[in-house]
Amino acid sequence: MMKTRNHAECILHFPSWPENKNVARGKPAYQSSTLGPNVASRGVDGNDDTDLSHGSCFHTQSACNNWWYVDLGQTYETVRLIEVFSRADCCADRNKNIAVQIGTSLGNLEQVWFWSEQLWEYEFVYFDENKVVRYVKLVHTANTPFHLCEIKVKADI
């Protein structure tokens, strides 16, 4: 006789994802350098297309310490999620050694995550508790160009 497992015993618990809004979309963004037309604002244009040739990714020149950041324009007290869309068309192996920093001013940023290995096409940083954030900065120390296609900062508003 075959024994079956009662599915009620196997309850999986996932964090509840709050209903929220991408508060980074269209906000001022800056980067350490620019390669071609691939300006910082492409990282918050609302388009998460992961192909650089489609015009929705930022790209810096090669350097040992590249960075990109967005100024949310005001402080949000309910940030729970940061989503990152990496390039999938080429060169994704460059996207490693990336620190995620957040804070209420550029002078008091706190590192909240670090990817030492290559980013997948989609990555995220989820906070168990609300974070107070005005700036989100990504610092890339892989000594290569830095390029991502979208960064979304989700807050309850």
What do you see in this structure?
Helix content is 0%, strand content 43%. The chain starts with 20 loop residues before the first strand and ends with a strand. It has one domain: Sandwich (Jelly Rolls). The protein has strands spanning 21-22, 29-31, 58-59, 66-86, 98-103, 110-115, 122-140, 147-155. Strands 1, 2, 3, 4, 5, 6, 7 and 8 form an eight-stranded antiparallel beta sheet that branches. It contains no helices and eight strands. The radius of gyration is 18 Å and the shape is globular. It has 157 residues and is mainly beta. Strand 5 and strand 6 (110-115) form a beta hairpin. Residues 1-8 have low confidence and may be disordered.
SSE arrangement:
Blueprint: E1 21-22, E2 29-31, E3 58-59, E4 66-86, E5 98-103, E6 110-115, E7 122-140, E8 147-155
Antiparallel strand pairs: 1-8, 2-4, 3-8, 4-7, 4-8, 5-6, 5-7
